[in-house]
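Notebook, p. 212. Picked up where the previous page left off. The plan for this session was modest: take the two constructs that came back from the sequencing core last week, fold each one, and keep the raw output in the notebook itself so nobody has to go hunting through shared drives later. Recording the first one now, exactly as returned: residue sequence, then the structure token string.
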Amino acid sequence: MSLNVELLESSFEKIKPRAGEFGASFYENLFRMYPEAKPLFATTDLAEQQKKLIASLVLVVENLRKPDALESPLKGLGARHVQYGALPEHYPLVGNAILTTFEQYLGNDWTADVKQAWVEAYGAITEIMLSGADYDSKTVELEAVTASTPAASTPTAQPKSSVNWGIFGAVFGGMGTIATILLLLA
């Protein structure tokens, strides 16, 4: 799959000046969309976690032109998350929150093409992680943009999930830079 690297880079550049706010908004969106997740971060230093999220975004975007540099760390990350008890259903939760956050920060620049670029990037990274975890990538596929999908829509209410939030918190509670990629991409 060929990613739209230029569009990913240029859209990410637009959020960089507000990176700190972006990180905070991501967690606000995650907790709003999936309120069951909030108690799991009660002992997490969210300011530090927000920095890790941004550092992970930087790592991914800076390596879009050399994806081989991401393959091994992402496969290892996927394998480790199986050990933590992570399931494929956990990946879309964070992916939905990160897409919502990009939409909020890019405003009118959040076009159907930009959304599709980020959906594809998220999908590619998730697929690499899942290949290390031996999960089926179809299970975590995000909805692709269609002609009828508005470029900047109001987020809709999310259905209740059957996610094991205890495992989710254990997986995402104390991650390093590479591990945080899951937070922004999953």
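Okay, moving on. Second construct, recorded in the same format:
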Amino acid sequence: MPVPLAPYPTPPAPYTPPANAGAQSQLVCSGCRNLLLYPVGATSVCCAVCNAVTAVPPPGTEMAQLVCGGCHTLLMYIRGATSVQCSCCHTVNLALEANQVAHVNCGNCRMLLMYQYGARSVKCAVCNFVTSVGASTSGTEQKFNG
């Protein structure tokens, strides 16, 4: 004699955290240059690696990035700055008005490369191949305001 099967119970609704709960932002440590994640609303962040305390820019401050011309460290700065001094090698980097960067695939290994928009060539850090980007934009080059 067959036994009737009970219907499957309704699964509980998945937990949905409230909007903005656990929201994080990021900045570069003023001591060791590591990327730090911090909860939105924090006023300063203590680095777990070097214990340096880095002040968080006020809310609404738009940040930009550039790669240092001296040591190739990624630098973050407040958008609108005209120059940025690297804390690693102390090179003063010119921050272009438009803060434009471009991307192109390496001509050898196809790695996506980022470079200052307007450059004539870019050297791949993976395979050391120099990709010519010329004065005109090619189909593989993409311009971004960074």
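Notes on construct two before I forget. The longest strand covers residues 100-105.
Flagging for discussion at group meeting.
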